Amino acid sequence: MRNNPSQVHYRRPTRRFLVVRGADVTGNKKLTNYFETLVHAVKGNIGSGIFAMGLAFKSGGMLLGPIVMLIIALMNFHCQHLLIRACIKITDKEPVEVLPSFAETVQYTFEDSKSKWLQKHSKSLAIWTDVFLILAEYGFCVVYFIFVSRHLGEILADYGWDPGYRVIVAIILIPMLLSSFLGSLKLLMPVSLTANVIMWIGIVLILYFSSIDLPPITDRDLVPYADRLPLFFGIVLFAFEGIPFIIPLRMEMKNPDSFTSRWGILNITMIIVISLFLLVGFFAYWQWGDEVQGSAFLNMPESEPLSQATKILVSIGIMLSYALHMYISFEIAYPRFHQKWGPFKHPSLIIYIYRTVAVLITYAVANISSKLGTFISLVGALTGAILALLLPAVLELVSLYGQLTYYVIIKDVFIIVVAIITAIAGTILSVIDIVKDYTEENEEK
Length: 445
Description:
This protein is an all-alpha fold and 445 residues long. The protein has helices at 34-45, 53-60, 64-92, 102-111, 116-120, 122-158, 165-179, 185-210, 229-239, 243-251, 265-288, 305-341, 347-366, 372-399, 406-443. Residues 1-27 have low confidence and may be disordered.
């Protein structure tokens, strides 16, 4: 039987104001039920990345793309289970119920290892884990700025007004900022549910437009050019953006055990997500071929009313998704800020200021370039490979040291190698493309 929430504590807590499960600094955070958590989990995994799957398939080919994407998806799915297992293993060793974060799971797993080096550097490795988590969430938010601005820009241009990309980014800053002030998953529930409905409508309409008058499938590349593969891996890893969510979502459930059960949140979510990614990516590339863009909506007919309505609707859905990702980054970063500088005389004011600065950071980065695909690939390669693949595999190797089988060693080493190659190659090529895009955009002015 679970302990009373009032008796829940962290071991050597890094988040002083999260001593009680489900409570924040104001003490008013509420726990979520199965349905609420499922809504957040699906929304956390389905963002703008799904609409870039056509570009991913362009880089992966009609034949090889689906196969490799399924392999990456299953690796990602498996690694999410590994992360949860490592988290549970930490909790089982404590006399009271503890709720370690992703970074704390890394820290305590390494502290319990037999390696003196890992024990010595466990805290710094936990800090770096938080750094990558924050970079990932900020990266998603930057992509959302670009996504919404590009789509609204097309719509405004159809009506004879082209204010320019950076002006539109500035316009949407206010609603993005206001949405970030929602301070708990309970408050975000209506926002997340609305975003889910909108995204589902967008997915259905993308599948509709991408399946009309399909060209011969032989017109599409079955296998990719080698130089496109890093972009493919980066986009796919970005699209599977749920790894930062799984521990916070599980932590705020009334019944955390149902998160990883047979018909639990994680399994149901991944079945839905993998199926949708395959469908959208396959048909988007089949329909638009080499013309497919970083968002399939940019390929839709510009003057058709249904197309315009879809772009507006999905832009709203992405704007709502921004709040959920900003919430996760706040939950990771603010505790360390509060631990070092708090407690504050006016905590609510400090929280609003902190959230505002975080939003302004993503706004500033979004102004660098309007190229959606390259930013998506960069975020996926830089953070997705590390968080979604490398760290969970390392955690299993460390936690099972002394009980490792050849199967586990080979499996985890393979995942680690894929993650390292993807992170290095994808990041370098994406940065080169972003610098190139930024230079070209400024020369055009």
